[in-house]
Design brief:
elongated, 177 residues, single chain, alpha/beta, five-stranded parallel β-sheet
């Protein structure tokens, strides 16, 4: 899928549709879009958002969104690749970040549920540990992978498409919800 260019007149909805990581990227770098005090509306144009937040270099904002998107693409891994790693017995942690309520509805048997009560056990892993995160669609798991990468983990991935991608490529018997 080719991507349209981001312009000053692009709405935030258009940008987020093309570059799903844009919201996280804008918040991390410019503190824009992460809370009610720095929020924007989907219909706001990029030029308006930058003006409202006193960001003068709009071209740099566009480059930052594009770079963040490229980094996110590099963190995504296809379900077939993860299945291959598992079948070869390669060392990895395959962690499902969905809520306990979601896990009741459907699960990838090979993925361990995230222990929300003891997240320290993940942060104490060696930074070179291969970790693959998954969720329902691959969006939340990409946020988690980016969080871990930001904390120095060098081999973190998000399962492209999440549980839905796994069901489509590996195990169509997993229920949809």
């Amino acid at each position: 899928m080719s991507q349209a260019a981001i312009t000053l007149d692009s709405t935030m909805a258009e940008i987020l549709r093309q570059f799903p990581s844009a919201q996280r990227a804008l918040f991390q770098r410019y503190h824009v879009g992460g809370c009610s005090s720095c929020a924007f509306q989907p219909t706001d144009k990029l030029a308006e958002v930058c003006k409202d937040h006193n960001i003068l270099d709009v071209d740099e904002v566009i480059r930052h969104i594009q770079r963040s998107h490229e980094l996110d693409q590099g963190m995504q891994v296809e379900p077939r690749q993860v299945k291959e790693w598992l079948e070869r017995g390669e060392g990895l942690r395959f962690i499902d970040v969905r809520t306990p309520q979601e896990l009741v509805l459907a699960r990838i048997p090979e993925a361990e549920p995230l222990d929300f009560a003891d997240q320290r056990k993940y942060m104490d892993l060696p930074r070179e540990t291969r970790i693959v995160f998954t969720c329902k669609s691959g969006v939340r798991s990409l946020d988690v992978a980016a969080f871990f990468a930001g904390h120095g983990f060098t081999r973190v991935f998000s399962l492209r498409g999440g549980l839905d991608g796994w069901r489509a490529q590996i195990d169509p018997g997993i229920p949809d919800y």
